[in-house]
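Tip: read the tokens left to right.
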């Protein structure tokens, strides 16, 4: 039937944000193999741009905390203040990644 594809469950999307290309690509390959649609960004600034152009918001953002240009904490602050991402303020599942352990403050 031609309508069968329309009735299939949509694939969940995950955004992977990490400046280490080996880490980012490894995580993306693993998630892709598990059936997820994966978006990638090299830093927080790129992640904000990806979110603004994504056809639908990701179910999870895997976020490196320590990155050049715009780090994880700065990303969280800017996405909360961005008028083009109002839907993203409310709905977010976030996994923070870092090689170093340090406390982070929660942004509004």
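Filled-in amino acids:
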């Amino acid at each position: 039937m031609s309508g069968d594809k329309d009735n299939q469950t949509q694939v969940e999307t995950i955004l992977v944000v990490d400046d280490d290309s080996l880490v980012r690509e490894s995580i993306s390959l693993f998630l892709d193999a598990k059936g997820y649609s994966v978006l990638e960004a090299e830093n927080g600034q790129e992640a904000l741009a990806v979110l603004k152009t994504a056809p639908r918001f990701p179910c999870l953002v895997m976020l490196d905390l320590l990155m050049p240009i715009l780090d994880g904490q700065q990303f969280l602050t800017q996405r909360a203040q961005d008028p083009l991402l109002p839907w993203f303020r409310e709905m977010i599942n976030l996994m923070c990644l870092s090689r170093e352990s340090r406390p982070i403050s929660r942004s509004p």
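The first strand starts at residue 13 and ends at 17. Strands lie at 13-17, 37-41, 60-64, 94-97.
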